[in-house]
Design goal:
alpha/beta, TIM Barrel, 5-stranded parallel beta sheet, 38% helix
Length: 171
């Protein structure tokens, strides 16, 4: 589909690894085998992301390294399904960056905040800007593309852009 739109392989499709089905090791092996069976034109579009239940960032980084596949870091999923609480978001973003090659385009991360009134892993209605700015500034000079996961969608995106650029949106 993306090929038919005429966009290059830097345009990605982000996947979760999937279910564990009672045997995580076997599930990872099945994922690896199915991935290797895919045509290269499909493989070059796929990236995997840590999830909030089954595959933490350590699992996904290991799998991505083995398959030569980029990994998207999701900060909220890491808070809910953490593999090493001694490591911060910036450590994991850096680890993921090492799997993004020039042909993959700019690294991507998912950023969201917890809705404090809902169950763990539920996205907030809006981005609290001070918390976002702490994350943004901590990324340093080589910032990835940040994909916001938030209920109010574009309102938070515009708020974040206006607080991080010299060219505010809508002005």
């Amino acid at each position: 589909f993306l090929d038919s739109l005429g966009v290059d392989s830097t345009n990605k499709i982000i996947l979760h690894v999937g279910g564990v089905y009672g045997d995580k090791k076997a599930a990872i092996q099945r994922f690896s085998e199915r991935y290797k069976d895919l045509d290269e034109s499909i493989r070059q579009r796929l990236v995997i992301e840590n999830d909030d239940k089954s595959y933490h960032i350590g699992d996904v980084l290991e799998l991505g390294a083995r398959l030569g596949m980029p990994v998207v870091y999701d900060n909220l999923h890491n808070k809910v399904n953490c593999c090493d609480s001694s490591k911060d978001d910036f450590y994991w973003v850096s680890q993921c960056r090492s799997l993004w090659k020039q042909k993959d385009g700019k690294q991507k991360v998912h950023y969201s905040q917890q809705d404090r009134l809902k169950s763990a892993g539920s996205h907030s209605k809006s981005i609290a800007i001070n918390e976002f700015l702490h994350f943004f500034e901590g990324l340093g000079e080589n910032k990835p593309d940040i994909m916001l996961e938030v209920k109010d969608k574009n309102l938070s995106a515009v708020k974040c852009i206006n607080c991080t650029t010299r060219s505010p949106v809508g002005k």
